[in-house]
């Protein structure tokens, strides 16, 4: 496989949550279906000429009526995927000659054996659209760490009231990385590409929030 120059995304959660747990006498009537709002979306350029890493900063506001946002390590499902075996109990490995499109929801991105993803393992989902000929087209970012994230419980144990949370995170952008790795070939972006992000969350009862869409941003 030919090497390609690409943009690789890394996500770093800042671990900053501003949480409002409202008293019984002044509780708003939030829906039990979570609602999210984009508070801030900014691109920061790295002025260090020796580094190609820039940052994209998101701040999202979450509102939920019964406080069931976030998953602890012990919350099911506790693994993000299971291995699929053949009739003889052996792993099934990806074969490029079968003309199947490689997708990290179906194949392990490190050892390339077949898996079945647990779609409910994560609770924050990010998709990337790329502008092509003036129209945004959804990209396959299944092999990259920003496609989904499992954030921790946001309320104290046994709390079942309304929740109002500001959730901060940062995406780092790395450029000019060459790789023969199959998984790294799935999403290839050039510095001149225009992209945007679409974000949604789910709660522990698997209610899905609205989706927020960022403004467009040039990769580099």
Largest sheet: 6 strands, antiparallel
Percent of residues in beta strands: 35-45%
- SSE class: mainly beta
Outline type: flat
Q: What's the number of helices?
A: 0
- Poorly predicted spans: 1-17, 175-186
Integer average pLDDT: 78
According to DSSP, the number of beta strands is 12
Helix content: under 10%
Radius of gyration: 19 Å
Distance between the termini: 26 Å
Count of spatially separate domains: 2
Order of SSEs? EEEEEEEEEEEE
List strands and helices in order, with pairings.
Elements (H helix, E strand, L loop, with lengths): L3 E18 L13 E10 L9 E11 L16 E3 L31 E3 L6 E9 L2 E4 L9 E2 L13 E17 L14 E8 L10 E2 L3 E2 L2
Antiparallel strand pairs: 1-9, 2-3, 3-9, 4-5, 6-7, 6-8, 6-10, 10-11, 10-12
Quick synopsis:
The protein has 220 residues and is mostly beta strands. The chain has strands at residues 4-21, 35-44, 54-64, 81-83, 115-117, 124-132, 135-138, 148-149, 163-179, 194-201, 212-213, 217-218. Helices cover 0% and strands 40% of the residues.
Protein described:
It is a single chain. By secondary structure, this protein is mainly β. It folds into two domains: 4-80 and 118-218, no CATH class; 81-117, no CATH class. Helices cover 0% and strands 40% of the residues. The chain has strands at residues 4-21, 35-44, 54-64, 81-83, 115-117, 124-132, 135-138, 148-149, 163-179, 194-201, 212-213, 217-218. Strands 6, 7, 8, 10, 11 and 12 form a six-stranded antiparallel sheet that branches. A hairpin with a 2-residue loop joins β6 and β7. The two termini are 26 Å apart. Residues 1-17 and 175-186 have low confidence and may be disordered.
């Amino acid at each position: 496989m030919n090497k390609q120059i690409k943009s690789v995304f890394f996500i770093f959660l800042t671990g900053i949550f501003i949480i409002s747990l409202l008293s019984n006498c002044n509780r708003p009537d939030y829906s039990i279906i979570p609602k999210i709002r984009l508070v801030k979306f900014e691109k920061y350029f790295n002025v260090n000429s020796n580094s190609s890493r820039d940052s994209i900063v998101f701040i999202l506001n979450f509102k939920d009526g019964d406080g069931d946002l976030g998953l602890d390590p012990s919350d099911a499902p506790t693994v993000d995927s299971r291995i699929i075996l053949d009739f003889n109990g052996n792993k099934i490995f990806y074969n490029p000659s079968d003309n199947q499109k490689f997708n990290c929801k179906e194949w392990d991105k490190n050892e390339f054996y077949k898996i079945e993803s647990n779609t409910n393992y994560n609770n924050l989902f990010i998709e990337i659209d790329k502008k092509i000929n003036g129209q945004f087209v959804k990209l396959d970012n299944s092999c990259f760490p920003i496609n989904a994230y499992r954030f921790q419980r946001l309320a104290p144990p046994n709390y079942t009231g309304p929740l109002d949370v500001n959730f901060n995170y940062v995406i780092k952008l790395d450029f000019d990385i060459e790789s023969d790795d199959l998984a790294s070939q799935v999403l290839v972006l050039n510095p001149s590409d225009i992209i945007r992000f679409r974000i949604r969350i789910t709660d522990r009862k698997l209610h899905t929030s609205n989706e927020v869409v960022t403004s467009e941003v040039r990769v580099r």
